[in-house]
Amino acid sequence: MLAGSQTPYRNDTDRELPFRQESNFFYLSGCAVPGSFFLATYYPDVTTPGAKNVGAVDTKLYVPNPTLEDLMWSPAPPTISEARDTYDVDDVFHTEELSDHLKSLPADALVHVLPRIDKFPCVHKSVASDSPVLAALNELHTLGEKTEDGSAITEEYLLTALHQTRLIKDAFEIDLIRRANDISSRAHEVVMRVLGLAVQRKIEQLDQPANGRPLLPGEWLIRTEAEAEAIFVASCRREG
């Protein structure tokens, strides 16, 4: 089970900071919705004695149920129907249903989670102390403690498995990497061209146009690293 990132806020305000989904969660789910959860359940096939355990994997995505405040101030999370059409998972539910699904796991289930360190929005940090999700996890027994019936929660294996898996890139991922490289390479070229025009005296910085209008991109010069970054980011954003 993985927890997606929560929307970050500037200290002591309701000012939202730029959101970035936790990378491992995004890798497995493809979902960039804040406050989501992902549960992949592996059911080994043990019907054939001596056979290798190759069973079925069931994937579930849990997205927040929008509140009235969400609908008023922010883009609403996708509906269940929209999420089912968008994400490559077996089924989609609202986050309120996750606790019941955790409680319905087999008694000897081993639940894998990411380590409880600041680098990851681990499940225990991503849910409130009074959340039914956390209560359901506690019912599955204390993290790291193996009980007599074999059920437990562990953070020992999941991150290593994800590191190994993410080293392998399929054709779709390679295409995305190449596209990102092309876009960022062109953005570097834009910065170099703007710098070159100024060095060659082909454009001159206007502190303020005569009619008080703002400077247009063709009139920009790069005098500081911040201005170079602004042009680089603008070039990347224009290409998506």
Largest sheet: number of strands, sense, barrel closure: 4 strands, mixed
Number of helices: 9
CATH architecture of the largest domain: 3-Layer(aba) Sandwich
CATH superfamily of the largest domain: Creatinase/prolidase N-terminal domain
Could you estimate the helical fraction of the residues in percent? 25-40%
CATH fold-level assignment of the largest domain: Creatine Amidinohydrolase, Chain A, domain 1
Shape: elongated
> Given this structure, which CATH class of the largest domain is correct?
Alpha Beta
Number of strands: 6
Helix and strand pattern: EHEEHHEHEHHEHHH
- What's the N-to-C terminus distance? 31 Å
Low-confidence stretches: none
Class by alpha and beta content: alpha/beta
Number of domains: 2
Strand percentage, roughly?
Answer: 5-15%
- Cα Rg: 24 Å
Mean pLDDT: 82
Order of neighbouring strands in the sheet with most strands: 1-2-3-4
